[in-house]
Amino acid sequence: MLWFLVIGLIAGWLAGKVVKGGGFGLIGDLVVGVIGSYIGGYIFNFLDLSVYGTLGEIIMATVGAIVLLWAIRLIK
Hints:
Elements lengths: L1 H18 L5 H22 L6 H23 L1
Helix pairs in contact: 1-2, 1-3, 2-3
């Protein structure tokens, strides 16, 4: 469980850097990363892609977090 939160935190921070140019603070990055990891899991599963290892999980969660931030920005 702790490892899942660490990956979510890293993914949220990376997505914040890519999409908005900055992070959202510790809690904001964690929330974006954790929700993004679920979205990334669905996207990768839909595209029949597999990830291996910690780096693959971080990439998948970051892709999901970027999609989440893009969707939020689109709604705003």
